[in-house]
């Protein structure tokens, strides 16, 4: 009997320990009505290393870990949903649903944090596009030019071998769009969904939430496109987007390889592509980001090349350690509200590099990367592991002859073009200062791009005979948001992020 009581006691302690250590999966949602009649919604006890995506009952959303939202009451009531995703945890906890009963009407003017857009149509995600997991693709559109209240069509283009769209559970609020249909696809995608919209007020932002499961393998690309048409028969505004498939539903910082295995005991070099992603969930811009990767002995430090990036880093290799430096990147955080609230995609970026293995591989190639935001403590990514098997067919050989110019450049001899942009964030005028590596450089092009890659401003600068070049760009007519400044000349192409207030 004592033994039974003792075991029961131990079992209860064990259960309490489990629920205590997983407190982040049981947050509390508070809803209250203020004296003014406004409804306040906030979350507590979300837990550390937890990503929260909240879809409020009025159709707006937040990617802050502890969101607070005030919205007008509604005679039909509200249903708000919060989704919680742990970093590097494949188990998605149940969403939390909060109901608010009908509470009457209120005509007060509200100021709530909103997602600012750089154009008239944009596409974002609720959380990382992990393979075999569902997330929301958030279509945002607004009227930035017409003084009247136009109507038109909204289109979402996708490939059904990349994502599986849950068409019946598309979330639409406040009659923002109507008449969802599945017409014939475009020439570039296998499927599309269309909606009609009416009376889009000047600067009004509307949202549509499309749930979809990621099908492509980890590290591969999802190709999407959204279009906004005031005349449904014309082409309208086109906004293509691409997203990487990741391993976990929320990868704040990660390192992944493009191969699951390499072939063992092969007397040839094999090719691997590693992608490192990093995410700022802080309350301020990260001015500089530093990534360090200790290469294991099975990888060849003399055969490396940078193959993909959103913002190009300066980088070098020394003593089998790769150092990537993102200077003046000004990566925004999802928990900051000034100058605006930033989405997951704006606070995340990545880069990829190609490297050759050595010969006669055995065992597994395992390593991780460390990431430092400014002077903060370092973050360590998950471990990327590629194992050698004799029967592995998923491998590529490094063609030394074909890739000699690209693969055998000693990384530590690369001298990137040095330039700075200031002030950043910027309000009216952006200063660009370029330090060339040679006294004479060929024609220089400068481009300002929005987050979708659309060119907003561009300039061509003739051949320079000076080591230093400066230029001032007027941004008074540019909307607030996230932009990229890209410089290109005979020394290469280089990019910086710019925040416009």
Keywords:
five-stranded antiparallel beta sheet, disordered N terminus, 36 strands, Immunoglobulin-like, globular, 501 residues, 5% helix, 45% strand, single chain, mainly beta
Explain how this protein is built:
With 501 residues, the protein is mainly beta. The chain has 4 domains: 2-100, Immunoglobulin-like (Sandwich), CATH 2.60.40; 121-244, Sandwich (Immunoglobulin-like); 253-413, Immunoglobulin-like (Sandwich), CATH 2.60.40; 418-500, Immunoglobulin-like. The chain has helices at 2-21, 404-407, and strands spanning 28-33, 39-44, 50-55, 61-62, 68-71, 78-86, 96-100, 121-125, 134-142, 152-158, 163-165, 171-172, 178-181, 191-197, 205-214, 221-229, 237-244, 253-257, 261-263, 271-279, 289-294, 299-309, 314-318, 321-326, 348-357, 364-367, 369-373, 379-380, 384-389, 418-422, 429-435, 444-450, 455-461, 468-474, 481-489, 492-500. The strands form 9 sheets. Strands 8, 9, 11, 12 and 15 form a 5-stranded antiparallel beta sheet that branches.
Query: Structural class given helices, strands, pairing?
Result: mainly beta
Output the number of helix runs: 2
Main pleated-sheet profile: 5 strands, antiparallel
Q: Gap between N and C termini, in Å?
A: 71 Å
Q: Would you spell out the secondary-structure blueprint of this structure?
A:
Blueprint lengths: L1 H20 L6 E6 L5 E6 L5 E6 L5 E2 L5 E4 L6 E9 L9 E5 L20 E5 L8 E9 L9 E7 L4 E3 L5 E2 L5 E4 L9 E7 L7 E10 L6 E9 L7 E8 L8 E5 L3 E3 L7 E9 L9 E6 L4 E11 L4 E5 L2 E6 L21 E10 L6 E4 L1 E5 L5 E2 L3 E6 L14 H4 L10 E5 L6 E7 L8 E7 L4 E7 L6 E7 L6 E9 L2 E9 L1
Parallel strand pairs: 19-29
Antiparallel strand pairs: 1-2, 2-5, 3-4, 3-6, 6-7, 8-9, 9-15, 10-14, 10-16, 11-15, 12-15, 13-14, 16-17, 18-20, 20-25, 21-24, 21-27, 22-25, 23-24, 26-29, 27-28, 30-31, 31-34, 32-33, 32-35, 35-36
